[in-house]
Amino acid sequence: MKTVLCVAALVETSPQAVPLGAACIVSALKSTSFFNDTLNFSLLDFSIEDFQKKGKTLSESARSVSEKIISENKDLFAVCFSIYVWNRTLLETVCALLKKNFPGLICIAGGPEVTANPASFTEFDYAVSGWGEKTVPLLLRSLYEKENILITDSLFTKIPGVYAPLKNDGNRNEDARLLGLNGHPATLLPLPRSAVLDLQEISSPWLDGTLNPQKYGGVLWELARGCPFKCSYCYESKGEQKIQYFPLERLEKELRLFSSYKVPQVFVLDPTYNASKKRALEMLSLIKTIAPDTFFYFEARAEFIDRELAAAFASVNCSLQFGLQSADASVLKNVNRSFDKKVFEKNIGFLNKSGAVFGFDLIYGLPGDTLQGFCASLDFALSLYPNNLELFCLSVLPGTDLYETAQSLGLTWMACPPYHVVESTSFSAKDLAAAKKLSEAEDIFYNSGRAVPWFLSVLKPLRQKPSTFLREFAQYLETHSVQTCCSSQKARELQLCFVRNKYASRNLNRLVSVAEDLIVLNGALGEATATGTESVVQLHYHPDDLMSGYAADLDFFAKNAGKFANRTKVFVSKNGPDWKILGH
């Protein structure tokens, strides 16, 4: 029996890197009765990061993947590739190698990058735009039965949402040449997508065994599809605005499966988890009952947060991520987003009061934004005590509304993945480079260094804005040739050195021991929470005093708290991270 292989190239090796898209196609194929005695289906996934760690070039990586496909699958009928912005170039190269050695092998491309511009995938026999759960089985059945689905000299086929960028002789289709990405076309002809399905018709790759919940250290979980918003830089700007929810019966079964496998973390894929308050509360209650020990990650909208939702999130083992993107309403208007700063602050306040864990995303390079404006957004974001702050360069993704208006908005961007903005009329290339360095510095100091409990307190005596402090830290990293990726332990060492230098330069030596203790003790507690690591730290002050509200004001604390040199053990108890003084 011949085999159809679905291939997924994951951007990294992490609990968040799970080949869910490709697995959904395998699951759909397995549930199609026609294929019961005709074709086998399997999933191959690999990590691009693993190749990079081995020092392999893109061509070497592609050769390794193509050789693996050939050696492990002797009787291939077709190969389906799940293509995203981060793996397009690699998988195009893999496809070219396969076609060179096996010209008759059918190669099919699908995924968000393909949906954006199917005509540009000229290495492939077929490109599937939109949802593939119904279209791919229909395409493979037609090919298996040798049905002619091509339309002479046309990119289109007889199957809606399926395109043929190659002619039968292997040459490019004329339509594909016209529509393919070769630089930036003035307009990108919108091509019809596959039909949107009723989610009750879609089988679960978790429940049918296509994906093993234990394999990746975490799972990606779809609760719904569609987004009510049309942020112009997002693929969802061209997607379904109507939200469809997966049946609760299916979700409960999946949740029980995750719990039975003791999955440590679940990443919920809904772009706006709390679009429906009723549904959000219902799912949180289900999670609390069935999987109380699993950690969940949600993407949510701050404007939909209220006291009840904040309390519900706080009662569950979870973290929320909010796409702030910018704190400037006029900038956000350019990408079809609205923003009310007062409402945002008020609703985030509900989360802080409830004790819920949350983080923000910011984008630099947005149309109309400047380096100064981006720094102001960073200052605003950090003033609200997020647990993490993720900073990204704007990508002008093909197939989005922004792609069609980017030139008129003054943006210049990369023609190939990752499609980053390289300059704009308001954000020069030099300023974008500065924003990139600032984002790297923030990631080390604030995120890797787990600085949220003490960051603003340590900055207060310096009388500096977070953006100014972090820009100086970026210069410090450059001067000392520090790599942009580092462990939490290395980040803590950098924090201590930089803060000591900063305090010394401002004649604040009297506060150094307080700042050091806050960094060291909170760092140990953060490490214990994240990894369960036990440690012993040397402190100048009593840990109970350091963890009190008085330590928020370093000057007041230094004047009023008595020194208490001690060795303290930090560990994880059944009630969470804790400490015990060993001696003083």
TrEMBL record:
<keyword id="KW-0411">Iron-sulfur</keyword>
<dbReference type="GO" id="GO:0031419">
    <property type="term" value="F:cobalamin binding"/>
</dbReference>
<keyword id="KW-0408">Iron</keyword>
<dbReference type="Pfam" id="PF02310">
    <property type="entry name" value="B12-binding"/>
</dbReference>
<dbReference type="InterPro" id="IPR025288">
    <property type="entry name" value="DUF4080"/>
</dbReference>
<protein>
    <submittedName>
        <fullName>DUF4080 domain-containing protein</fullName>
    </submittedName>
</protein>
<dbReference type="GO" id="GO:0046872">
    <property type="term" value="F:metal ion binding"/>
</dbReference>
<dbReference type="InterPro" id="IPR051198">
    <property type="entry name" value="BchE-like"/>
</dbReference>
<dbReference type="GO" id="GO:0005829">
    <property type="term" value="C:cytosol"/>
</dbReference>
<dbReference type="Pfam" id="PF04055">
    <property type="entry name" value="Radical_SAM"/>
</dbReference>
<keyword id="KW-0479">Metal-binding</keyword>
<dbReference type="GO" id="GO:0051536">
    <property type="term" value="F:iron-sulfur cluster binding"/>
</dbReference>
<dbReference type="InterPro" id="IPR023404">
    <property type="entry name" value="rSAM_horseshoe"/>
</dbReference>
<dbReference type="InterPro" id="IPR058240">
    <property type="entry name" value="rSAM_sf"/>
</dbReference>
<feature type="domain" description="B12-binding">
    <location>
        <begin position="3"/>
        <end position="150"/>
    </location>
</feature>
<keyword id="KW-0949">S-adenosyl-L-methionine</keyword>
<dbReference type="GO" id="GO:0003824">
    <property type="term" value="F:catalytic activity"/>
</dbReference>
<feature type="domain" description="Radical SAM core">
    <location>
        <begin position="213"/>
        <end position="435"/>
    </location>
</feature>
<dbReference type="InterPro" id="IPR007197">
    <property type="entry name" value="rSAM"/>
</dbReference>
<dbReference type="InterPro" id="IPR006638">
    <property type="entry name" value="Elp3/MiaA/NifB-like_rSAM"/>
</dbReference>
<dbReference type="Pfam" id="PF13311">
    <property type="entry name" value="DUF4080"/>
</dbReference>
<dbReference type="InterPro" id="IPR006158">
    <property type="entry name" value="Cobalamin-bd"/>
</dbReference>
